[in-house]
Every structure is written in C-alpha cells, then in structure tokens.
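Dear support,

I submitted the protein below through the web form. The confirmation email said the job was done, but the results page showed an empty box. After a refresh the structure appeared. I'm attaching both so you can tell me whether what I see now is the final result or a partial one.
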Amino acid sequence: MMRFFVLLLLVVAGNAFLCPPLKENTPTTVHELHPNDIDVIMTLGDSITAGFGIEGAKGLLSEFRGQSWAIGGDENATTLANFIKYFNPNVTGYSLGKHFVELCYGPLCPPLQYHPKLDQLNAAQSAAMIGDIAKHQVKYLVKQMKSMEIDIETSWKHITVLIGANDLCISCLIEKILSADEWEANLRKALDQIKAEIPRVIVSVVEIFNVSQVYDLSLKNKYCTNVHRVAFVECDCAFGIKGKKHREYMDEMTVAYNARTRKVVAEYNDPTNPSFAVVSQPHAEDLAIKDQPIDFLSTLDCFHPSLTAHRIMAINLWNTMLTPLDKKPHTMDPNAKPMCPTNDTLIYTH
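What the results page shows now:
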C-alpha cells in the first residue's frame, strides 16, 4: 500500500509534523491497533467538538467542524483526525469546512439539522448534553456510516467522546436531573448502544475539565468580563448572580461526573472482547483553565475554546491515546508536541 512508502507532511501550528511511516499490520483484536490501523474516525459531543467559536467573533453563528480538535479534516488543521490521516491517508469520517450552527438543547433538537456532506461522522451538536448521545448522536453515526457505504463489520474505528460542559453549566439549577447517577445511567446507555451497533471500535471518553474556571480566566480581559455580563446565560452557573457558590457546585459535579466515567469505563473495558474497547482519557481532568493564556478562549464569547485551544486539545489527546494506561497524564500541556509513534506503539486499551 502507498501509505507505507509515502511520507506525508502535516503542518502543526506552523511547524512541520514529520514522523517515519509505520509498518502495515494485521490486527486481530481492537486491543492491537496502531494509529495506521484506524479506518474510520468518529466523534460524539457538544459545541466544543462541533467547532463552535473557533474563528472568534468573525465566525458569529458558525461551526468550524473542519478544524475541530478531534475530527477536523481541513488541510493543515492540527487535529486528531489529521494525525491519523498522516499515517493512514485512507481514513474516513473526518468533518470538513464550516456551516451554520446545529443546535440540540433538550426538546429543541430538530431531527434533520445535520449537514452530512460536511459533518461526515462528527455527530456532535451545539448545546448537547450527556443524554443526547444515545438519544440522537449514536443513531446518526450508524445511519451515516451506512449512507457512506462503510464496511461496518470489518473496518477498525475510533470514537472520541467529550461531553458535559452544558450539563455542568446548568447543574446548579437542575441538580436532581443532572445528578451523578443520571450521568452514569446516560453514559451506560450510550456505551451499550455503541457496543451493540458499532463493532471493531475503540471509544475514547475524554474526562471533562473544570468548566467553572473559564470565569477566572475571563477576568484577565476587560472585553471578556463585559461579554459575560451580557451573555451570562451561556453558562449561568459560572457567570450568574450567585457566582462563587454555583461555581463551587460545578466543581463538585465535575469531580463526580469524572469519577462515574472512570467507574463505567472500568466495567465496560473487557480485554477479552476482541471487538469493543472503551478507555478513559484523563489528560484534561486537572486542566487549570484559569492559568491558560487568554487566547485559549474564543473572542466570540470568551467561553468556547479558540483555535489555539483546539490545537492544544488535539495534540494532548493524540499523545494520551498513545500512552499506556498507568502513565497517562492528568493535565494538558499547552506546549506539548505531537508524539511520533513507533511500530510498537499501540492505541492503548489496557
């Protein structure tokens, strides 16, 4: 295959990403996958993975899915999808370009709002919460794979899941509905659905970071402070009138959600199952947003991650996936460089 002999060039945040090609493999289980074995890449999540706000104020109500940290496939975008595409040019599923925002918020979730030609297998929707994954997003992935004529039974797949920011932003208002028990139940429902309908897949569940700290970072910039006075409803628990009390509750729920995520992942990740694996990727767990540079936040709303943040998130996810479970980092390094895997490097599942 050409992918073994041709070394592609990817520009990562202005720097060339040059790694030697990997040997072709013939994996027999999902626990033996190398980066070049991934045939299909998919995502589940909210506006962060949908790419909302990446281009700042000039983007207005657009999602820049082609630059999304986990699945963007635009040329030279620093994304997980492009790292995988570097080693396997035949990978499919990555999202492209931009389009008007796709909104899914509770009952306000139009069934036909996806843009399949651009979204591809990026099922994330702005304003989505944990319950929306099983309710809408996994179903979209299965339907879209069929429409793309992907060989679902034999292709090797990777799904990135990042969800929880919207749950946390209203957790102080609807405590019983968004409890840790409900979080666990909804995550189980989504994983059961994936396990039943999408074979040969690794699911990377990225632990949620401390969203409340966006408030502290925004205080470094007068523009951001003024934005949040007007747009506090975007995350009422972080920017609302009860301030510190609600942010502390958000922090408690972040810890609780991540603890339940690890619990569920430990139960579902069976090393003897050749077709399904789920891994908790903890690199964002202890992220100190308040210590990041102000350009970590989008100039659109001083809340969503900027293009700079998406690049940092992509590199850290890539590096964490290629790190054994007992050595995975628990915080993101803003200066991290993408790792070059060797022929012995796996996408570690246990």
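Response: this is the final, complete result; the empty box was a page-load delay. Strands lie at 10-12, 15-17, 40-45, 62-63, 99-100, 157-162, 201-206, 276-281.
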